[in-house]
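Handout, section B. The chain below has 449 residues.
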Amino acid sequence: MSPTPTPARPRPTIFGRGSYAESLRIGEILRKETVGGALLVAAAVIALIWANSPASESYFALRDFKIGYEPWHLELSLGAWAADGLLAIFFFLVGLELKREFVAGDLRQLDKSIVPVAAAVGGVVIPAMIYTLVNLASPETLRGWAIPTATDIAFAVAVLAIIGSHLPSALRIFLLTLAVVDDLIAITIIAVFYTSDLQPLPLLLAIIPLALYTYLAHKYRRFFKINAAAAWLILLPLGAVTWALVHASGIHATVAGVLLGVAIPVLRSQASGGPAAGPGLAEIFEHRFRPISAGVAVPIFAFFSAGVAVGGAAGLGSALTGPVAVGIIMALVLGKPIGIMGTTWLLTKVTKARLDSSFKWIDVFGVSLLAGIGFTVSLLVAELSFGHGSLHDDHAKVGILAASALAALLATLVLTGRNRQYRQAEEEEKVDSDHDGIPDVYQQDGTAG
């Protein structure tokens, strides 16, 4: 009698459907970032028009107007305040989102986190290599190798909302996660490679308010959830002092934003009331600060950073053909898709996983093109690389704007057709035959949690 054959184990899949709760949470974030992306683009366009108009001197005078208190190293121009101060709010949310994803989100599971994390790394390494190769003969421009490494989530999501409203939620979650990990890598690069004249004393002193901020946020999280004014009066001043000391240490102050975000508690223990107590402190803070970041901080930063005088058609042509702009355009438009797609494909071969049956590789390619929209963090790294207002900085900004527009256009061409094909599938996913508030497809997959 022959032995009963052992049934073959199903091959693991990538880009499988996440949990329904995670899908709802990501959808809410994407809706808010869509508005922010539209404001960001509008602010950048206004800055470009103003900087190249007959009234351009007034724009640069406004951008370079200084305000602050010099003994605390805080007499900064309005442009610097936007880059160092307002952008710290954006990175505070990055810190919140990173902790939320890796502590309580779907990415706490290795099988779900390995693909977007590895793809993000590939989407950083390949663009950096391409920029470096293009600028190898120009040592003074090599310092900008990190400019094309980051993805602008607000800009990319705004484009995705317009062209891909019916694309599967897993693809949108992948783009958001990819951008968040991208930002983590970018802020690490900023902290390690773009720190000049490090001052150990302010850095050590920053540990004191940061530690107190962390202790209070964890110890009294229920109190701060209920009393919003207390959070503003207690935690915000501690955060501001931490930011000022990190800024004075020579490390870019946006690093403080990430640290303050990561310090906020995410998991809700029994002591805090458990799930019945409602959203945790991190979720409360995200709800309060995301509109400020998307609607105020990032657009103002874009306004002061995107304004570059191109000097007419001749100046624009010179900027676009220079090694800085060429390297950035090639890195973002070609390097990002190659890095992300190549890494994802390689993972399917190494792990013998397969793409989820509901997707095609052309979908992943379209999202990879969207990841080539580098704007907010790229503009920041350009200023850190070459100095605010320098010729190379101006050329870098032209390259970033051109690459972002080209990546958005190519992604639109790829994803618009795919979006139409997914429209019917999306309607089927909403079917809830037992009327329990959870679509049947999530219950069939066992991912309703």
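Note. Residues 269-276 have pLDDT under 50 and may be disordered. Compare this with the example in section A.
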